Amino acid sequence: MSTKAYEGTYNGEQAIWLQAGRYEAVVLPDVGANLIAFRDIEKEYRFLREPALEEMEAFKERPIIHGIPVLFPPNRYEDGKFPWKGNVFQFPVNEPKTGNHLHGFVHNIPWVVEHFSSDGHESHVALALQVRKGHSVHEFLPFDFTIRLVYTLNEQGLHQQISVHNEGNVAMPCLLAFHTTINAPFAVNSQPSDYTFQMTIGERWALNDRMLPTGEYQALSADEEKMKTGGLSPFFESMDNHYTSVPQNSRNFMALTDAREGIKLVYDVGTSYKQWMIWNNGKTEGFFCPEPQMNLVNAPNVDLPADQIGLVSLEPGEVWEETARLYAIKTT
């Protein structure tokens, strides 16, 4: 199998390109280490939403709804307040309509490329974000830590490995998600109506008018129940919904099926992601975001057990790590 890893550009932006057989992927180190493209070049499938050349400036201003942005800490925090072990960290309120902080600090800043390489079987790239005093993230999360992200491409698809290492001398919060943006359709000759999906959701969290959890669950609709088994359009209704994750057959996943092509895109994520967010841009056909998330939205401000809401604490020297994979299989 032909494999390759090399430095190049993507619409004028510095990029690391990975190739392995029919698959191709692109990472943008200076834009939050966003895995901006994952493609099957033989079938001309583009699985992730990519910005066009004329969209690049807008994308870099708000790199959330393309590719696979890293959110740390993810989603919304009430009034920008993040209580932690006797302290309250103040985040900027960057969502005026809700008065919340949204999406953390690492998705729009440069990461360091540690290395990239290929062999006869696969290609890969490793990126890192080291936070110390003086770093822009340290201003809001005053801890010493490193996030490492490794992408590997081989005949089994795109593999993602992420870790957070607490390199300081006090316990730190570890809350992380990916705002993964999936094309539907991903095939050139298919239509949105050709697509159905399945997700390993459990309960739906009730959200208030500020899009923050009330701590209660709300009943699933009949259509939402279908999300657990498949056969439902990702645009069946407008979604900006928050769910618990309940693995099926020990797997936590989203699966998107193109009935016309007879292909299923599988997004396997680790069971450390105890929650899902799903957003479909007001049921606008073309793309949607199944977002694996460690923690409940606004978790530090919610009076529920830490294990239930994914409020993870890393002691000095500890490492949190998880993996995920995107791959396509035939259904017919």
TrEMBL record:
GO terms for molecular function: carbohydrate binding; isomerase activity. Pfam families: Aldose_epim. SUPFAM superfamilies: Galactose mutarotase-like (SSF74650). It comes from the Bacteria. One of its GO terms (biological process) is carbohydrate metabolic process. This is Aldose epimerase. The lineage of its organism: Bacteria, Bacillati, Bacillota, Bacilli, Bacillales.
